[in-house]
Amino acid sequence: MSTEPATEKVTTKIWQETASADNPFVASNCYCYGYNVYDDVLLQANWIEYLYLLFIGEQADRQQTIVLQQLAIALANPGPRDASVRAAMNAGVGGSTTASCLIAAIAVNAGQFGGGREVYSLVECIQAMDMDLSQWLAYARKERIADIDCLWPETNHLAGFNPYQKTCSEIWLKLLTHVASDTNMPFCAWLVTHYAAFENITKCAMAKSFVCAAIFKDLGFNSEQAEALYLLLSLPGAVVHALEQKVSGWRHYPFFANGLDLAQSTLNAVSSEPVEVCL
Amino acid sequence: MNSHYELLEACENSLETKMGKWFAGDKVIFRGKNLHQELGDKTWFELFLFSVTGRVYSETQVRLLNAIWVCTSYPDPRLWNNRITALAATTRSTPPLAIAASLAASEATIYGHGPNVRSLHFLLNAKRQLTKGQNIQMLIKSEFKQHRAIYGFGRPLHGSDERVPYLMQKLQQSKALDGSYVQLALEVERELKTGRWRLQLNAAGLAAAIVADMGFSVREYHLFMIPSFLAGMPPCFIEAEEKPEGSFFPFRVDRINYKGPEKRTWKS
After folding, report:
1. I need a labelling partner for B219 at 20 to 30 A (CA). Which of A29, A148, A252, B183 fits?
2. B5, B13, B54: residue with CB nearest A259
C-alpha cells in the first residue's frame, strides 16, 4: 500500500482543516475563510450568516443577514403549483429516492423561464447596465436581449418579465419594496422606482426572477452565485411536498387522465407506411 | 377573459400531442408509430434515434452514429463525469442517482456536450457564412474573436485525439467522407494546422460534421448525445462498489491546499 504523501491537491480559499493526531484522514478542526467552524461559527452565527460567509468569504453585516434571510424565506417554498415542486412531487409520488426528488426540483428550477438561468441572465444584465435607465428602457423594448447560448433553448419572453401576468405579484413586490428601504440596496430601490415603466412597455409583469436578481446583486453575489443560491434556497419546499406526496400516494395526485389528446395527424400516420429512410 | 392568462386557462386540462401516448392495456403510439407493432423490432439505438429526430436512418448511417457513442465510452473513473459515478458507488448511493448525476455533469464546458453542441453550431453557421460569400480565414478570425476558441478543434489534455482516426476509418467504411460538412471540418483543420493556431480537428468536431451531413439540428444533436458517455459509467460503479466503501481515491487532510485568509475570530 502506498504511504507516499499526496501530490495532487485541491486548492481552495474556502476551507482549511487540521488533521486529527491519530488519523490523517480525520479533521480535528475546520476553518471556513479563517473562522473555526465548530468552535466559533457554530456557537455564534446563524445559518444564513454562515451561508453568506461560504459564498462571499466575509461576515455579512446585520442588514445583509436580514435581507438574505428574508429572501431565503421567500424562496424556501415555491408551493405545489410551481414546476420545480411538481417535478419533486412526481418523483415522490412514485416512491422514488429522496435524492431524485431534489434532483428533479433542481433540474426544473434551473430553466430560463422563472428559473435559475433567468436569475443568472438578469444579474449579468444588472452588472452590464447597472442603473442606466436608457439602457434598461431599450432592454424593455426588446432592443437588447440577453445573449443566447446554444446549449439552452431559446425563450420567447424577456428575462425578468412574466408574459402571463400584467402586473407584478403582490408577494414579490412586497419583498422588493421591503428590502429596498435599506440604503445598502440601491438597485432594489431603483427597481421599485422604475419597474412600472418597464411593465408598461413590456405589457408584462416584473417577475420573481427580477426581484431575486436585484436582491442578489445588491447583496454582492455574482451571476453564478445568484443562480446557485436561487436553486439551493428553493429546495426545502420542493422536498417537503415530495415527501408528503410519497405518503399520500399516486391515487390522490393529478395524472391528467383525460388531458392528453393525440393529434389527428399523428393518429392518421399510425396505420400508414413506415417513414422514409434518410439516405 | 384576461388576455394574459388566456393561454394558461386553455392549457389547464388539455394537451394535444403529436409525439405519443400510452393507451392503457391497448397500445403505445410513438411519434406516429405503434411502438410494439411497427417499432418493436428496432434496436434500442434505432428507436432512440427515431425518438430524437422522427427520422429513420439507413443501416450504414446507424453504424456511423453508433460509432460516435462507442468511441467516447471510456470506463476510466478519473474522468470528471465518470468519477461522480465512482464516488456515488463508494458512498453506496444508487446506480441511477450515480449515473443521472454523471450524465448531467457531462454537459460540461471543457468536454462533453458543451463542445459537442457548440461544434455543430459552429459548422452549421460556418456553412451559412461561406454560402453568403465569407471566406474561411475571416470565419476563423471572427470565431476566435467571439469565443477565443473554435469548438471542434484542439483538445485540452493532449495534442491529438485517438477518437479521430477511429471515426475517420468508420467514415471511410461508410463511404461518407465526401459529406459537405465533413469536408468543411477538414478544410477548417487545414487552415488551423497551417496557421499560427496549430489546432487539430477533434472528435467533437468530426462527430458534429458527421451528424450535420445527416441533417441533425443543434437540438437534435444535443438530445442524441445525452447517452454518449453512458457505457463508460457502469464499470466505474461496479468496481467502486466491489471495493471497500469510502475507498475510492480517499483524500487525507493535507490534500487540501488552503490559500484563504489567516485564522480569525467571528465578530458577534
Report:
1. B183
2. B13
